Structure formats: structure tokens, C-alpha cells
Predict the structure of Nucleoside deaminase.
Amino acid sequence: MSRPADTELLAVALEEARAGLAEGGIPIGAALFAADGTLLGRGHNRRVQDDDPSVHGETDAFRRAGRQRSYRGTTMVTTLSPCWFCSGLVRQFGITRLVVGEARTFDGGHDWLAENGVEVVVLDDDTCVAMMTDFIAANPTLWNEDIGVD
Amino acid sequence: MSRPADTELLAVALEEARAGLAEGGIPIGAALFAADGTLLGRGHNRRVQDDDPSVHGETDAFRRAGRQRSYRGTTMVTTLSPCWFCSGLVRQFGITRLVVGEARTFDGGHDWLAENGVEVVVLDDDTCVAMMTDFIAANPTLWNEDIGVD
């Protein structure tokens, strides 16, 4: 099987983000794929739904992928540039590639990851930008809570 | 109430680490304290127990503290220098202080956090060192899995 295009990977993360929004949550989704394109785990931010500040899109996808002996060759795709928490996840576990939907509404750690050997692709996707722009405008306090801004 | 000494904070993290060891898990514990010394959450690594790679000591303590509007003035105490994942957690959420039991058996992101404004104290505690030294010697494969080493 040929490896899916990055836009196809992003489509999975976007589905997750939309599911989160429909649940009343913060619309950020992510997924972890094996080197051959197999989906290992997918998830979305559940701060509101689960009352759990540790469940960002990336940590949810990582957790749902279960225990893996190695992350070599894996790709994490996320609708939004990863915060330091999620960037640290990617770096610590040696996730090889990071596909970012957009980094305009939040500039996380993707440059730091690129400097530290992660292959980073920023798609600058207009749909992702619009979704977060609308969400942040409507929910500034909740958004600030999610990224640790007082 | 006066703020507890860092060694008292570490005693809570050590209790958690020992509880994890008794459960057959990786012996790393952590706790999050408010500025006035109130315990907000405590936890330990549960990779083995919960089959969940996202539950490190620090992420467990953070999660169990629940949603907080601000982490200003909080202290995270951990028996072991935090990995990038957990270091990113401390940085993203603006946790003010980090107390580390030891950084001899694993050199995580505590220096990076200090460079980025976190007040870091490394206690270099012999009990913490002995616990991890024994654990790593007996379980090298599990330990490497937990820190993403192939």
C-alpha cells in the first residue's frame, strides 16, 4: 500500500476536530500513523468533555495507539501546531514526522521539533485556520485555559 | 500555613513511586502543589498497570489535579528528571517551580526548563537514585520503552 498523502492524514485529524466541536469541546484533532500508513490511533482534545486538562489532540491519539515498542517511521498529524506538552511528546518518543494543519492561530513547538530532527510539514490549511479562528473568538477564556495562559 | 520544605514534597512523590513499584509498574511518582502548599494532585507512572503510554508520573499528577484556571505559583515535584513530554507539560502550563528527586539515572529537560524561566531544584536524593538504578538494571527493555529508546 502506498503511503497516504499528508492531506489525507490531515483529513482524519480534521474529522476528529469536528467531532470534538460537536461534543462542545475544543476543536483540535490528531492521529498517529505507522510508516506504512496504517492508522495507529486517532483522537481529539477532551478538556471539556472529560474535564481532563491532559487530553490534547495529540496525547489522545498517542494514548489510543496503545503501547508501542518503537515510534520509528511514525507520523503524527494534528490540526494545530503542537503546544510544548505535545511537542515534548513527539520528541521524547522519537515520532519521525509531524504534519501540522496550521500554525497561524497558535505557534507551538514545531520549529523546535524541526531543529531537533523531526521531519515537519506545515500545510497551512485554510479550513483548520477558520475553525480555530472562530473557536478562539467565541471562547477566549477556555482557549487560554487550554494553553496555560493566565 | 507555611510552605512545606522541598524534601516534604519529595516524600509524597516517593510514596507514589513506591506504590507504582508495588503494582508492578515503573517507579516514578510526582505531585502538584499550589503556592500555599496545598496538594492539588499526585500520581505515578501507569504504563504497565493501565497499558497506557501517556501516563507518566507528572502527567498523572497533573490530570488528577483537574482543570485549573492558572498554574501560577504551583510546584511540580517528581522523583526523576522529567522527560521532554513532561518537561513540555511544565513549560506549557506555566508551572512555576520544579523539584526533581534526581537526575543521575535519567537526564531530562530540567535544564531547558530552568533556561525558560522555571525555578528548578534538583535534590539529588540517594533513595530516588537507588530505586531507579535497581529498576533499570532489572527491566531495561521496559525502561527504554517508557522513554522512547529503540
User: Anything to note?
Assistant: DSSP finds seven helices and five strands in chain A. The mean pLDDT of chain A is 97. The first helix of chain A runs from residue 6 to 22. The beta strands of chain A are 29-33, 39-44, 75-80, 97-102, 119-122.
